[in-house]
Amino acid sequence: MDSKTLNVLDYPKILDRLAGFCDFSASMDSARALEPTSSYDLALARIAETTEARKLLSMQSTGIGGAHDIRAHADLAARSGVLDPHALLDIKATLISCRELKKAFEKRTEEYPRLTQIALGLPDSHGLVDAISRILSDRGEILDSASLKLGEVRRSLRVSQDRLMSRLQKYVTDSKTVSMLQEPIVTQRDGRYVIPLRAEFKGKIKSIIHDQSSSGATLFIEPLPVVEANNQIRELQLSERDEERRILAEVSAQIGEHATELKYGVENLAALDLTFAKAKYAEELHASEPILQDMSKVESRKSKDLRPLTCNLKLIHARHPLLDPNHVVPVDVDPAPGTQAIVITGPNTGGKTVSLKTVGLLVVMAQSGLHIPAQSGSELPCFHSVWADIGDEQSIEQSLSTFSGHITNIIRILKKIDNRSLVIFDELGSGTDPQEGAAIARAILSHLLESGAMTLVATHYPELKTFAHGTEGVVNASLEFDIKTLRPTYKLTLGLPGRSNALLIAQKLGLPQSIIDDARAEINPLDLRADKLLDDIRKERNRTSREREKLEKARDKLEAQTRDLEKRLEKIEDERRETLAKARAEGELEAAVMKRNIDSLKNQLKKAKQPLEAIKLIEEKIDKIEEKVEQPVERKALNVERLTSNEMKLGERVIIRSLNAEGLVTALGESDAEIQIGTVRMRARLSDLIRKSEKQTVDDRPKTVVSQSSSTVHRQSSSPGMEVDLRGLMSEDALDKMERYLEQAFLSGLPFVRIIHGKGTGRLRQAVRTALRGHEYVGSFEEGGSSEGGEGVTVAKMKSG
């Protein structure tokens, strides 16, 4: 891409902001060197990488961790240099970051294929992390355990230092010598341990003088008896230094063996960090992924087979990325298919230049792999080149006027464009005689149309408005101006040329009406009529736009209400299904109880040698009830038709229409009633109830079966319900509650029960199941099904009484 064009479009400022999101220097350099590509495949790959990074960052915080640019360290190690501890720690941190990133992406290859491909280029550790950790602490200190020799040397050094300090302490504490010292301390000079002797006592202690104070009052002496000990310490310190250097050199040599891979890995790490930076920048801009169109199949106009431009430009609510998003006015650039040039007119400071820069900048951002600050669905051709002439090109050094500067740049651009280029000209033909400037501008625009390049031009010349109106493939556009406030609105309108509004502005500012009338008389009546027509068209267009916005808002509101109603109806339907499911479960329980009682009665009748025909009739009725209960609870089509209400009486049999279930009225309200279905009680609207036939009475309900013999009567205890909830109780309290419940369930003849203990840590579940093993009332137990609560529920089958 042309560097001059990128500069006038403020692209370097975009790169500076992008670099601010990078985490280390290598990726910052890559960000500032990022250039748009003319390759459709490469641009598409870059955008896909940014999209994957945004998706990843939206789900979890990801970065390069504590990585550093270690390429200089790797180069030094490759040249047999010895790395210092801090350089080794940088390499360790970088390799750890690479290892974690690589491991993370290897597990998500299908979800993030492009990022994974970059991560595969990160270097392996090759044991370097362990090698560095073995010799260095986290503070960069070489450990005693780095080698056997280093450990021995340091132990000997500590012992020698302790001995030396003990001998020097005698001089500091001895009453004969302490009065000769400036201070009773032991210090160091040139790596040797000394004591501070007052100058007037020079020669009183046999010693070697190593230094003196600036005043000359203090001499720093090494007593002769400790010279040998100091020499030994110095030798050990030199041995320690040599061994440390040998250890660092050994690890540095290992790093040097992998220097090429490490440098290549840093480049991939920088690429990954740059991709994360693109994603973060896109989030800050509230940007969206652009749709790129391939122009590589469009042959150049310089070839024999001339083919017109087939790609279209479509930007929806596009914003300049360097302007405050809270104040910038978005523009829509969506010309009809086949449009090759857009001629923008409007007042000064109305936003023409910003609109041109917005289009050009978003094109180069997209071809650099960046998401653009525009609404999703925006489309851009992948141009082979982008050219722009924007701003004042005066050059004092070359004695060029504004016009000459523009023309020089335009000549350079015209030599290099083809039908796969985007050309942006601001104030084309300005800076010279208006008539000649308009003629040159029209001729240049004609040449651009012949070349096939897509062109955006901003101008004040009315001749270009006429040219655009009468030329195929060229469309007028304008930036609106508010006459009431005398301020531009910055709204771009395609299809209508701009007006100067000079007379209206002058009139608003207070120019005498007589002068306004004289000026209007000088203007061609046809031009005035055309301006009036344009103004009427613009007003009608604005009115239509406002009406469309109102309709869109009304449609959005209606859709929201429809979605809300559907959710509410879905909820009602789910509640209906849940109620029916509970009722069916209660029916199953009652049928099971009745069967058990019938079996008991059979046995007693057999013993008493009584006929079983009556029992068979009851069994047939129970089978029919079971068939009805076992029918699945299906989702019914929701019907919001209102039903008329009927007067109800307590104890009356009714049918609930929405549930298709029969129940008994137990309480009445003004608009609803309490209905008992089996053992379940619920509220229902009066309009949802139908009176049962008068022939059916309360006596039609199944009677409680009482099993009796000639000598005993077995009465059932009241049912405690199908389930007991133990959640939130301590194990001891929960087991007591379960014991009481099982006893009631056994006495009431329940065939099975559900014990709810929850999942949690599993302790309560284990305690419950341990208590159920061998329980006097429980035959067997099993984990609840998926619809019953899974491992949070235990279903116990009761023994028969």
Structural account:
The structure is a single chain. By secondary structure, the protein is an alpha/beta fold. Helix content is 47%, strand content 15%. The protein contains 22 helices and 25 strands. A six-stranded mixed beta sheet has the order 10-11-12-8-13-14, with helices on both faces. Strands 18-17-16-15-19 form a five-stranded antiparallel beta sheet, with helices on one face. The protein has a four-stranded antiparallel beta sheet with strand order 1-2-4-3. Strand 20 and strand 21 form a beta hairpin. Helix 5 runs antiparallel to helix 12, helix 9 runs antiparallel to helix 11 and helix 19 runs antiparallel to helix 20 (613-629). The radius of gyration is 46 Å and the shape is flat.
Short summary:
The protein is of the alpha/beta class and 801 residues long. 47% of the residues lie in helices and 15% in strands.
- Helical coverage, percent range: 40-55%
Structural class: alpha/beta
Low-confidence stretches: 301-308, 393-399, 635-646, 694-716
- Roughly what is the average pLDDT, rounded to an integer? 81
As a percent range, the share of strand residues is 15-25%
Q: Largest beta sheet, briefly?
A: 6 strands, mixed
